[in-house]
Write a structure and sequence with these properties.
single chain; 28% helix; globular; Ribosomal Protein L13p, Chain: A; 143 residues; two-stranded antiparallel sheet
Length: 143
Amino acid sequence: MRTYSAKPKEVQQRWYIVDAEGQTLGRLATRIADTLRGKRKAQYTAHVDTGDFVVVVNAEKVAVTGKKLEQKRYYRHSGYPGGLRSRTLAEQLERRPTEVIRKAVKGMLPRNRLARRQITKLKVYAGPKHPHEAQNPQPLPLD
């Protein structure tokens, strides 16, 4: 028996849609990251992009547990001395709710070139509307 290795031209990439309203952030991000990588497919190959596209709507209505809204912080640095800035999760959800989900999913992907390509297949929108109706996205089964 030889080990099967998927070829990039053989991979069929589907489009999935996820409604983030009421979903727990971490559990949702795990499922999305696995779909972007293609881990749920039989032909998964670690060094080939076998993943699918994921469209996330209602990112502003994602749920978190515990006191994360006040205690979880998002940091960024301008590159200048004293340029460290931070926001709480509540402030980040108010200002840029799409970045909360994108950053959670990105943290669950490996740090390499393939993951940088895979994160581009994630489309996150704050509200219920999205411009990907032509791709006919199917609902992502969240176990």
